[in-house]
Amino acid sequence: MNFDIPARTEHYRARIADFVEREILPLEADKMSYDAHGNIALPLLEALRAKARMAGLWCLQLKPESGGAGLGKIDIAVCYEEMNRSIFGPVVFNSAAPDDGNMMVLEALGTPAQKEKWLKPIVEGKVRSAFAMTEPHPGGGSDPSMIMTRAKRRGDKYVVTGRKWFITGAQQASHFILIARTSDDPRHGLSALMFHKDQPGWRIARRIEIMGPEEHGGHCELEFDGLEIPVEDMLAGEGRGMKVTQVRLGPARLTHCMRWLGLSKRCVEIARAYAAERYGFGQRLADRESVQLKLGDLAMRIEIGRILMMKAAWELDRGGFARKEVSMAKVQVANVLHDAADVAIQINGARGYSKDTVLEWIYRYARQARLVDGADEVHKMVLNRFLDEEESGFWRWTVEGEA
């Protein structure tokens, strides 16, 4: 069992850390850097993205032939954690959701023509993208078998009708991946189709206001009323929508964890810095046992999350789906992110509750972590199903040399 990371990975990590420290954190600290929705203003973002590309820190998660660096999941875990020391980090390096997951699934399942048309512009930073799957009641949310949006074949096109909501980034996306029902087959009834924002037959009904800060393009409700999608813009073939979601959402959940660990560590960093300088009743906060216990507990729980995340990354790198490993990591890290922000605010007192630090931003953002890409309860149900199916095999060690 080897927990060492390759020297190449450490080289990327160190360069990312330096870039975040020099280029991003100063902007994060300046309130003039933010747009109306709590994210980095687009003119500043474009300038930073140009610098990241020049520094060779762009799309590290993709293969060289796709415009990336060819890093594996373990490698990008190290890098993504470092990127998200800043709340602005991932989007600067073109490693933020939903583009991140969309690029990965297009790279894995797209035809050469589809990659040229749909993937390349995202990789080049010319367009943003969105993944349209979740629906309002009575449609599909955590249960994709309930998806009601229809894509009916008519000649060489599919005609789409239905609704989606909470679609991240939709207002600024040009390329969309849509999960729709093409038949009532219980196993092969869903398909993935791609469309451009300028195609007629759909609209953004509203941008949904949310509790936390928003990604660029917000979270939107979409209505489809006759959107026509050519057959050649179907991803992976008819009836393979669940395959597409499996390929996309498993790694995407894990990359969320990678980024959330970076934010969790940032919360501890801010809390420790304040506790080291703040005095009360004759001693520093850092010297109080109650504060030490809180920070020590967070350090342990963050490291547990890192280990769970790394095991899942290792399983993906060796060709597995890592469903139970990803579920474990997702629940653990989502909860520790929330608690890290909460503890850091408590240690900082009124300062933590104010906008003088990014803690309140992280706290509002963290609440969604237990909902997006599967609520905690869904992932725990998945783990229980594995327990029922595997019984004592659930705990089995992987033997060296096994595929």
Q: How would you characterize this protein structure?
A:
With 403 residues, the protein is an alpha+beta fold. It has three domains: 7-123, Acyl-CoA dehydrogenase/oxidase, N-terminal domain (Butyryl-Coa Dehydrogenase, subunit A, domain 1); 128-235, Butyryl-CoA Dehydrogenase, subunit A, domain 2 (Beta Barrel), CATH 2.40.110.10; 242-395, Butyryl-CoA Dehydrogenase, subunit A, domain 3, CATH 1.20.140. 48% of the residues lie in helices and 15% in strands. The chain contains twelve helices and ten strands. It has helices at 7-28, 42-54, 73-83, 89-92, 99-109, 112-123, 241-277, 289-317, 323-348, 350-353, 359-366, 376-390; strands spanning 128-132, 150-154, 157-168, 173-181, 190-196, 202-207, 219-230, 234-235, 279-280, 283-284.
Which helices and strands appear, and what pairs or packs with what?
Blueprint: H1 7-28, H2 42-54, H3 73-83, H4 89-92, H5 99-109, H6 112-123, E1 128-132, E2 150-154, E3 157-168, E4 173-181, E5 190-196, E6 202-207, E7 219-230, E8 234-235, H7 241-277, E9 279-280, E10 283-284, H8 289-317, H9 323-348, H10 350-353, H11 359-366, H12 376-390
Parallel strand pairs: 1-4
Antiparallel strand pairs: 2-3, 3-7, 4-5, 5-8, 6-7, 9-10
* Residues in β-strands, percent: 15-25%
Q: Which residues sit in consecutive blocks of at least 5 with pLDDT less than 50? A: none
Structural class: alpha+beta
Which CATH class of the largest domain?
Mainly Alpha
Q: Give the overall average pLDDT.
A: 97
The CA-CA distance between the termini, in Å, is 16 Å
The percent of residues in helical segments reads 40-55%
User: Strands of the largest sheet, in order across it?
Assistant: 1-4-5-8
CATH architecture of the largest domain: Up-down Bundle
Shape: globular
Q: Let me know the CATH homologous superfamily of the largest domain.
A: Butyryl-CoA Dehydrogenase, subunit A, domain 3
Counted beta strands: 10
Main pleated-sheet profile: 4 strands, mixed
The number of helical elements comes to 12
- The structural domain count equals 3
Order of helices and strands: HHHHHHEEEEEEEEHEEHHHHH
User: In the CATH scheme, what's the topology name of the largest domain?
Assistant: Butyryl-CoA Dehydrogenase, subunit A, domain 3
How big is the Rg?
A: 22 Å
